[in-house]
């Protein structure tokens, strides 16, 4: 049994636990969000975790209920028909949280969406080290964009009095529920390897519902995107919306008098869930947005244009089902990856559990299977999907008041007519913790367990559950300081002590599988082994074999295939070709060579057992691969700049130090010996800096600096670097490089157009958008055929020329030596 993590508070909502692809657990706990970050080291005794009883997790508290008057302006009360207690007088406790897909926040990390009881949805990100509380900040409040968007959509709406206008405005800007879009990528087989990994073909989207029966699709832009201009800021833009009709008539007379009449009104969309993406026969990415009304579940199709912000929605639902038979669906979740040609959507209500089997190609042929959940009446607090088996998809779930004793806590998908009862590991763990609580407090078994949340690990091999324990036969006298939540982490299924990871990432796309997730999964298994056997060679070999399996490297892959860089043309490279440029370099540096992959993940495991167990000579293969592949990037595929020239010159100077470097395929002149050519000058004494070491730089006067482990330029100022969160290698921060970079040579004429002064606050759209006139009503969703990129993409590319420096930083967004994500 894995140790329980005990937090000193209670959750503030159900389904309050979420696990990011960065391997960070987040718990919604009233005025704060509690973050749990794993300590990825075999020896963690000297780490201050902020928790009692465990040295394997670091606890970070984020205060999420404090808003400035700019973020949430003061408001006046509305008439009874439209007022919201949460919006007007709540303490803004956390009501719902969810991690974004990786890549939106700094250093390719996930952003945390936090919905508070004042009906505002915020994005929280870490600008430095996620383990430090002050590094987290609120980057964006999405309600402002809803306000702007609907004022534009309903600009011609007839309003009789000013109060009525303010009432409608407030209803439309409140956010009731939300769902992140998975990252859309080109079509891939069911199982593929990291060697076939592809960049996303679009940005980040989120669906939100308001208090006026509207669902809005927002595009969220980050300053850390590969496509963003140097002066970009966090922003959101509404791209499409649809409304569920009929809407509430605030002028209705007489108003509802009975409770059943008021409860029967369809006021807002209660749940949203966004399916994985698939590609239709025309090559257009499609997904299904599921949403719930008072009495039914609905499915509506979404299409996007690759490398564009254009979103189109079907005018009508492609499927709806009223068999849920209740006003409130407790939980609505898609299985994160398709099973063959089928998506699975699960819904839980007081009528039971429902599995919607949605064919990818024809969602209108959706079928429904059900289970009555043994006639229980309590709410389902969370669920987790199985990532270990590709042939037998299953879901485990947690009931709020009966979690330790219920007969059914797991179902196969689709739900068979008869189900066999068995006790999953998480349920047995809750029973064991319940007995321990009873013994510690001398309750003689009279213990009541309240379940709050459940979620899957990124790959689906582990399950995290959150519960609290209370006396069962007496009044509980308690204060906030004595509140305790037990977070238990167990394998999805019993593996009889064997270490098994899901194939090809399990529930996680193999592109998003982080080194942090892999090493944490190995750590959970090692905790169960006798301490004397953990360092045995056979144990390490077993772990590396499972890393190989999780990365899909046991699948057949033709290593002779070499990715080609896009061809140039008169109009320059469009967004798709730019993405292919960075993707090709990333594959060449990270994954095309299995020898480099073995070296990287072997180093990762060595660092876990001994953080000082690697030497500089271990870095040589990765450095050689990086230098030779970057020098092969065609000169015509990017704009020349001062930083790009420095990188090329330093890399060329390094070639004689790399004995096995192959000059074939490099640009002309790359193989020349340029050791005596100085590309940098000391910012202290203005003396030249030569190349003497991969790790450090020194000028003629003896001033020493650390070298960037990617560009190998000297880091000569404070605040312009970052470091790997696992191995500690130091790198230049890409923002500091891009911000100060200037075009050079023949491209200098584009300087003012390409790289304006960032202090001017200029902000442009990251992805191009074909503007369409939007009108009110059901047809207000932007419609399009979803094909082509148009002139907007070309214009956008011309506005922001791409340089070699930006290509290198975009391709190498994780550590090239161990795969860890950056901090700082």
TrEMBL record:
InterPro entries: GTF3C4, TFIIIC_delta_N, TFIIIC_Znf. One of its GO terms (biological process) is transcription initiation at RNA polymerase III promoter. Residues 19-490 form the Transcription factor IIIC 90kDa subunit N-terminal domain. Coiled coil: none annotated. One of its GO terms (cellular component) is transcription factor TFIIIC complex. Residues 749-769 are annotated as: Disordered. GO terms for molecular function: histone acetyltransferase activity. Signal peptide: none annotated. Residues 679-822 form the Transcription factor IIIC putative zinc-finger domain. PANTHER family: GENERAL TRANSCRIPTION FACTOR 3C POLYPEPTIDE 4 (PTHR15496:SF2), GENERAL TRANSCRIPTION FACTOR 3C POLYPEPTIDE 4 FAMILY (PTHR15496). This is Short-chain dehydrogenase reductase sdr. It comes from Diplodia corticola. The lineage of its organism: Eukaryota, Fungi, Dikarya, Ascomycota, Pezizomycotina.
């Amino acid at each position: 049994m894995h140790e329980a993590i005990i937090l000193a508070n209670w959750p503030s909502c159900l389904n309050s636990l979420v696990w990011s692809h960065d391997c960070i657990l987040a718990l919604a706990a009233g005025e704060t969000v509690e973050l749990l970050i794993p300590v990825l080291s075999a020896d963690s005794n000297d780490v201050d975790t902020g928790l009692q009883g465990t040295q394997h997790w670091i606890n970070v508290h984020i205060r999420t209920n404090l808003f400035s008057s700019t973020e949430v302006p003061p408001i006046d009360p509305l008439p009874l028909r439209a007022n919201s207690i949460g919006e007007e007088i709540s303490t803004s406790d956390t009501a719902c949280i969810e991690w974004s897909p990786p890549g939106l926040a700094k250093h390719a990390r996930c952003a945390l969406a936090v919905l508070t009881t004042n009906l505002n949805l915020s994005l929280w990100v870490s600008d430095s080290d996620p383990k430090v509380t002050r590094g987290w900040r609120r980057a964006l409040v999405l309600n402002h964009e809803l306000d702007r968007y609907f004022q534009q959509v309903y600009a011609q709406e007839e309003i009789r009095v000013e109060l009525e206008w303010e009432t409608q405005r407030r209803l439309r800007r409140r956010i009731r529920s939300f769902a992140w879009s998975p990252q859309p990528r080109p079509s891939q087989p069911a199982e593929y390897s990291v060697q076939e990994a592809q960049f996303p073909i679009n940005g980040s989207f989120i669906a939100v519902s308001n208090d006026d029966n509207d669902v809005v699709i927002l595009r969220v832009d980050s300053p850390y995107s590969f496509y963003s201009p140097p002066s970009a800021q966090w922003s959101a833009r509404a791209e499409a919306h649809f409304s569920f009709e009929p809407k509430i008539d605030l002028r209705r007379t007489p108003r509802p008098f009975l409770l059943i009449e008021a409860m029967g009104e369809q006021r807002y969309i209660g749940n949203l869930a966004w399916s994985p993406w698939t590609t239709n026969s025309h090559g257009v990415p499609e997904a299904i947005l599921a949403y719930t009304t008072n009495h039914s579940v609905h499915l509506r199709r979404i299409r996007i244009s690759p490398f564009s912000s254009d979103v189109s929605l079907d005018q009508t639902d492609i499927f709806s089902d009223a068999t849920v038979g209740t006003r409130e669906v407790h939980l609505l979740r898609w299985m994160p990856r398709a099973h063959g040609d089928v998506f699975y959507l699960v819904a839980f209500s007081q009528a039971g559990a429902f599995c919607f089997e949605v064919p990818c190609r024809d969602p209108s042929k959706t079928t429904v299977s059900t289970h009555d959940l043994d006639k229980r009446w309590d709410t389902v607090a969370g669920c987790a999907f199985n990532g270990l088996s590709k042939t037998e998809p299953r879901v485990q779930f947690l009931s709020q008041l009966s979690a330790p004793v219920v007969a059914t806590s797991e179902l196969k998908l689709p739900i068979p007519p008869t189900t066999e009862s068995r006790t999953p590991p998480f349920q047995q763990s809750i029973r064991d913790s319940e007995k321990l609580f009873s013994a510690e407090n001398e309750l003689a078994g009279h213990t009541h367990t309240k379940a709050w949340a459940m979620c899957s690990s990124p790959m689906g091999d582990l399950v995290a559950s959150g519960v609290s324990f209370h006396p069962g036969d007496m009044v509980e006298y308690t204060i906030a300081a004595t509140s305790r939540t037990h977070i238990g982490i167990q394998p999805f299924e019993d593996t009889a002590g064997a270490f098994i990871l899901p194939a090809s990432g399990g529930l996680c796309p193999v592109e998003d599988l982080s080194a942090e997730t892999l090493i944490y999964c190995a750590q959970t298994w090692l905790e169960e082994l006798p301490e004397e056997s953990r360092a045995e060679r056979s144990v390490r070999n077993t772990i590396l074999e499972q890393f190989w399996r999780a990365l899909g490297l046991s699948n057949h892959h033709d290593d002779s295939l070499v990715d080609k860089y896009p061809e140039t043309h008169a109009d320059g490279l469009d967004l798709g070709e730019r993405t292919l440029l960075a993707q090709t370099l990333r594959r060449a540096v990270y994954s095309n060579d299995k020898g480099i992959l073995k070296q990287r993940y072997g180093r990762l495991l060595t660092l876990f057992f001994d953080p000082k167990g690697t030497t500089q000579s271990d870095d040589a293969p990765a450095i050689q691969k990086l230098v030779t592949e970057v020098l092969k990037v065609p000169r015509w595929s990017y704009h020349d700049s001062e930083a790009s020239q420095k990188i090329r010159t330093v890399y060329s100077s390094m070639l004689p130090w790399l004995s096995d470097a192959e000059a074939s395929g490099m640009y002309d002149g790359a193989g020349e010996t340029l050791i005596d050519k100085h590309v940098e000058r000391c910012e202290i004494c203005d003396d030249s800096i030569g190349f003497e070491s991969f790790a450090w730089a020194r000028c003629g006067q003896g001033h020493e600096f650390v070298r960037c482990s990617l560009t190998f330029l000297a880091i000569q100022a404070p605040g312009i670097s970052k470091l790997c969160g696992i191995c500690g290698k130091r790198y230049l921060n890409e923002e500091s490089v891009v911000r100060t970079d200037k075009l050079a040579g023949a491209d200098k004429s584009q300087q003012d157009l390409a790289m304006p002064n960032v202090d001017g606050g200029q902000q442009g759209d990251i992805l191009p958008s074909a503007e369409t006139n939007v009108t009110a009503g059901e047809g207000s969703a932007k419609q399009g055929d979803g094909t082509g990129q148009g002139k907007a993409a070309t214009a956008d590319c011309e506005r922001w020329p791409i340089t070699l420096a930006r290509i290198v930083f975009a391709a190498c967004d994780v550590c090239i030596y161990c795969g860890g994500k950056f901090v700082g």
